[in-house]
């Protein structure tokens, strides 16, 4: 049977209508869930959890092999049965790469993202259907609207390569009517100097990047004769891609004359937590189910206790994840936030693997950063560290290293918090800065560790 040109056009028009109707359904669903109160959200999460487990058990190769059918059925009638669902680890995701977690036919996939993430460097994949992706964009837009509106010019300095975060933010910002300045991260075509010029020329009001990149951009601006607080219009910094210590946030606020907000997510899970107008961090419970578990026993811990964050997707069809152990040390705040949001608040305490034996106990990279950046009083705000038995080795930029008050402040705080001794060295600032410039995810990691030293 042949189709006439008129019929062909009618088919194409119908397809367009179907696409628009599907988009509208997603938007309605997002708006409905976003308007729920705490109680409604709890009920919605219970039924969404049962749907996710059933979908994963039926359609995801990994979970079909791992979750018995009768367990999926039990979750539908008894939410407590969910605790018997086995955990998923990053190792599982790496072993399933690339298609072992795909729960829809490949032709329904709109995006294929990848992460080498914070694990051992092995790749893991992340998939989205068109509905998953749009739902994600809408939810992020709703959350960003806590502090952004159509009048904002937003510079996005996060990776766009193979990771969804840059594009996801762009779509969400477009929905809010913001002006986007897509800076990317660590591209040779857009080095920090060019980023600073773009911030200035665009009149950017908002900068989205990791806290460490914001420190680097502040340093580059100053070197070019600009005071970020006085000469740039940025009054909001939204940090993503790494944890930021309270000292780093305070430093950014002071240096840029900006309010600093945090968000938290991963390529494989998307946005997990987002700031509120009070600069607190709320769990995105409208698309993910959160548990805090004992890292050793896997036992679920009540709100208020610190443990490992485990997440279950409630919205994504393409790649459902069940009880995925994120490797992040977190606490869920039991009290509601004064901002009025029904979403619970997250306290992020760093990565499990970042626990460093120092002095008489343990510290995390974030805590060490808090001590050092909290004491620095002049730029550049860079440092590197290493641990040598009971002592912290800290390398500071030459001027800070020569300042006895800064050294004393760091030593006293390291003693107080970690019962650790401190030794100081001079940071090779150009080499350190080169490492920051060429990394898509710059952090203050101790990557300048002198050769031969033991790894903490
Ligand atoms: Zn809040």
Key descriptive features of the protein:
456 residues; alpha/beta; 7-stranded mixed sheet; 5-stranded antiparallel sheet; 15 helices; 19 strands; binds zinc ion; ANL_N_sf; AMP-dependent synthetase/ligase domain-containing protein; AMP-dep_synth/lig_dom
Folded structure, characterized:
By secondary structure, this protein is of the alpha/beta class. The protein has a domain at 355-437: 2-Layer Sandwich (Alpha-Beta Plaits). Helix content is 39%, strand content 22%. It contains 15 helices and 19 strands. The protein has helices at residues 5-34, 38-59, 61-66, 69-77, 90-96, 130-144, 164-176, 192-202, 211-223, 228-231, 246-256, 365-375, 398-401, 404-418, 429-437; strands at residues 109-115, 124-129, 153-156, 179-182, 206-209, 236-239, 259-266, 270-275, 281-283, 288-293, 300-301, 306-313, 324-333, 345-351, 356-358, 361-363, 384-388, 391-396, 421-426. A 7-stranded mixed β-sheet has the order 4-3-5-6-7-8-9, with helices on both faces. Strand 17 (384-388) and strand 18 (391-396) form a beta hairpin. Helix 8 crosses helix 9 and helix 12 (365-375) packs antiparallel against helix 14. The termini are far apart. Mean pLDDT is 92; it is low at 450-456. It binds zinc ion (ZN). This is AMP-dependent synthetase/ligase domain-containing protein. Pfam families: AMP-binding. Residues 175-311 form the AMP-dependent synthetase/ligase domain.
